[in-house]
Each structure stands twice: as structure tokens, then as C-alpha cells.
Amino acid sequence: MLATKTPLPLRHISLRVPWHDSGWTGRVCDAPSLNGSCLKLKRIATSRNDAAELRVAGQAISALESSEWPCCVAERSTFMAPFEFTRMARHPYSVTSAETHGHFLETPLRHPAYAAPGVPFRWMRNDNMESLRDEFALDVDLEREPKLPFKTGWVQELGNQRALLDTFFSHIHPEKSLCFFYAKEIPL
Taking the model in full, what pTM does it have? Predict the structure, then answer.
């Protein structure tokens, strides 16, 4: 947690979104198999199912079963959707490292209309923990990180995560902070 209750300075954030061929309105792309730009995002490149997406092309995800949603929904492709929805999220380590993370259950994530989930990647990397600790007087400690049977650069320990996430989001001031959306690659 923060060492002081002093309000942190206002910061703006950026969020990466996948390219969409007909605007970010909560719909599946009109021509999903032709959208190669979104394949620059690893989770989409390894999970996209062109045949399944073609069957629901152009439809709003609100009209579909969640099993029919394209994989890009988890990558913020719906950030301008004019409707609320809830998606079930599964931690990737719960599948790849069941011995250490298998107890993590699927979690419902509510997405209000026009919202986008934010992941502060830099803040959650353990190689940045010490500099963030020093800059913000945080109670984070690499020694608290668990010794895992696999290599990871992500902060794992709950106390470290809370201190980092609470501090990051304390910089975001409602109605004042700006959010800049960008796509990793665009076809223009």
C-alpha cells in the first residue's frame, strides 16, 4: 500500500485494442478472416477461429452466446460497445501451470457500456518492482514472490500486486484523466 495518503498526481493512460474492420461497436468484424492486423496480438493469433467468426460476422456479441464470441473480446475489441456484458475470464496459468495456479477459477468480469479493461503491463512486471517501490514508497518486495517451477516476469504475490495496482489506479482521476486507445497494427 502507499506510505502516504497524499493524492497522487493525475495521469493519463493508453489502452491497446485490436483493429476492427467496422468500428468498435461490440460487433464481430464484418470480414473476420480478412482482418490480419489483429493477428499482431499473440492471444488472437493463437486462438482465432476464422470459420466460427465467419458464421457470426457482423453480429453484436450481445445477441450471441458467449461460446460464439471471437477471442478478440478478451483483448478489448468491444471497448466502444453501447451495451453492458459480462465475460468469464480464466487465468492463463490455471491451464498451463495447474500445479501452482489450477485453483484459480473462472471469474466473471463485468464490462459496462463503452468501457475497456485496463492492464498496467509495466507495473505488473517484476523487473520494474524495485524502481516503482523507490519512486512511490511502496510495500513491495521481490523476496515475497513465490519460487515457481517455471519462469515468469509477472508479479505473483498478492501483497505486491495490491500495492502496485492500487498505486497505478490512484493516478487515474475520474472525469479528468484521459484514455488514449491505440492498435498495435492498422491496415492503413
Answer: 0.82
